[in-house]
Amino acid sequence: MLRRFFMLGLMLVTACGMAGNLRQGVDMTVVNERLLLNGEVTSRTPAVLNEVLAQNPQVTTIVSQQMQGSIDDEAVLAMGYRIRELGLWTHLQSDSGIYSGAVNLFLGGTRRTMVRGAEIGVHSWADTFSEGTNYPRDASEHQANARYAADMLGSDAFYWFTLEASPSSGIYIMTREDIARFGLLTAPVIEF
User: Fold this and answer.
1) Structural domains present in the chain
2) Residue that wins the pLDDT comparison between 192 and 4
3) Which residue, 94, 135, 159, 170, could crosslink 139 as a Cys pair with Cβ 3.0–4.6 Å?
4) Predicted confidence band at 25 (pLDDT cuts at 50, 70, 90)?
5) Helix H segments across 64-139?
């Protein structure tokens, strides 16, 4: 009987995760040459982004406002590469908060700017990495994210930093020194 309840619970959790990934996840609002993003990236978000950008060729800058991260890492990387391919800029307002996979999305910008007050939060995607048990540096699970960081920043050092900064259940808010150390911005923090 207990096993049946466990299996039912597992099926419900799995179904909720799949259903969540089928929703669009990110609210997109075009304001002049800026595309404002809020939400969580899912597997459907890249197609919506491409559609919005095709309908709004005046967009030059992606502004991440409040983005919790993603439930589909491949979608984030696809979006980041698309942003880079189109030569778009990324920007964080003073009240922006980007976390987890949303940070990778921000890295796609050819010019990446931030106003003082914005938060950038990172963490590991697997606690077993932090404990050093299942995912050594040469594990295939690291390849896509490490390559993406290197493609966007010129080095994969930022990727390895995120894995060690916080366990997957937490979040580490990067300091200005961290942000500068890994070259997340292409211009100094904007002060107001």
Assistant:
1) 25-181 (3.90.226.10)
2) 192
3) 135
4) confident
5) 73-85, 101-107, 127-131
pLDDT in tens, 131-146: 454 565 666 677 899 9
Instruction: List Cβ<8 Å contacts ≥24 apart for 178-183.
Output: 179/114, 179/120, 182/153, 182/157, 182/158, 183/153, 183/154, 183/155, 183/158
pLDDT at 24 over 80: no
**Using a CB cutoff of 8 Å and minimum separation of 24, what contacts does 163-167 make?**
163/124, 163/125, 163/129, 163/130, 164/124, 164/130, 165/122, 165/123, 165/124, 166/122, 166/123, 166/124, 167/123, 167/124, 167/127, 167/130
| Residue 4: how many other CB atoms lie within 10 Å | 8
Q: Which of 104, 46, 127 is nearest to 79 (CA)?
A: 46
